[in-house]
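Holo prediction. Input below; ligand is uridine-5'-diphosphate-glucuronic acid.
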Amino acid sequence: MRVAVIGVGHVGLVTAACLARWGHDVIGMDDDEAKVESLTAGNVPFYEPGLQELVTEGVDGGRLRFTGSRTEALDGTEIAFVCVGTPGLPGGAPNLAYVEQVGVEAAQYATGDLILVEKSTVPANTGVRLRQVIQREQARHGATHTISVASNPEFLKEGSAVHDTLYPDRLVIGAAIPSVAERVRDAYQPMLDGIGDHPAHDCPVVLTDLQTAELIKHASNAFLATKISFINAVARVCDLVGADVSAVADGMGLDQRIGRQFLYPGLGYGGSCFPKDVDAFVHLASSVGYDFKLLEEVRAINVGMRDHVLDLLRQELWHVEGKVVTLLGAAFKPGTDDLREAPAIHLARALVAAGATVRIYDPVAIPNVDKLVGDLGVVTFTDPIEALRDAHATIICTEWPQVRALTPADFSGSLGYPIVIDGRNVFDPATMVAAGLHYHSIGRPRGGPIPDAADAPAATTTMP
Ligand code: UGA
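Structure of the complex:
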């Protein structure tokens, strides 16, 4: 098939590269000229494991090319995947202006019948509005091609985006006309059947209407965010009763209806998706008359985890003003250099505002950290031991393998004060405490005997 991908950011580029792998003739379009130039030379402008190889394979094989021209992208194209940004606006609604713009351009530049497929995460009913825009524009220009709209939400995770796209759990495709949804499924047929060295991956395919497909995406992300906030709330209770949240999550997760995934407590969820999508879903529900209070609480619990970790730090340090605090990990999760809504960046800003000197270690995201918070006076490191040297305390923010590989002796031998706040529950509390570290994690006993209630330290902060 002749396929276009409009917008080659994280989702768009992975989609384009995978479609090329499945043998389609793919053209990626983006307004960012520098990005198009870099991709045409075969260089991926961000970090995503396995993507560089896939892009090189597609470009060298002549199945993947890039352009800044809409006319070129839409010329002879049968299916165009819309992967443009939908950034959050103040108030929670996503900005759908770029999606609308693609509809206007499709009506102007399509040279034959076209299916426009929403891949960007959009609220329910976006497809209906998109169809209206296209019809109006076509009427204005006297265009007669059939331009249909479908929704095929993306479920990839940054850091495993290529694998998630090549081997998805399911495909969801929605359209008002079933034959349109089926034609979109045809684009995935090589993946389902297997092609070349790509084995058959016969995952379930959900064919549905437009609004339902759009809603499946928002509901999925909101549910996963809810799972994370739920276990974070449980972790707070575990701290108060002396239970171990890891064992609680293991015990819960063995129930197949619950499952163990996404029950890892810590600093909470970040990234470009969950925070924005939860806001957008709350906004959508409210705009149609439903007050989604559950998701508002999910959001509040998530933000509260950062405050909780700062409270743990203050319990140890008393004041943070004038202290040196090392954040281990900056990216919102391992396997990416993405800092959008990264808990570490929120912590860095809060600590700098409170007068601390902040150091940040990250194995891949340091160039982005320098760009984002370099002006705050944050000092950056690509060696964790150097970052820890003589610091008053450290907070583990991202569970990179390089952070997991640190030993208790690395902490006790490098830190000025032996204070470790583990915001990702990476280390074993008993081992860390036995090594003489003042170690705190999220929802797990501290390693020594659990103190009697009367001896227990106050759970609240000892801030002045
Ligand atoms: C998320 C979804 O997992 C994807 O299915 C979806 O396609 C994507 O959003 C999207 O809408 O584009 P992503 O944001 O890349 O993917 O990252 P996740 O692996 O889901 O992690 C999100 C955040 O939750 C991270 O900050 C992670 O540290 C945190 N998390 C995750 C936890 O705190 N606890 C957990 O148990 C799991």
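The pocket of uridine-5'-diphosphate-glucuronic acid is lined by residues 121, 154-158, 221, 224, 228, 262-264, 266, 268-271, 273-274, 332-333 (CB under 6 Å). That is the main takeaway for now.
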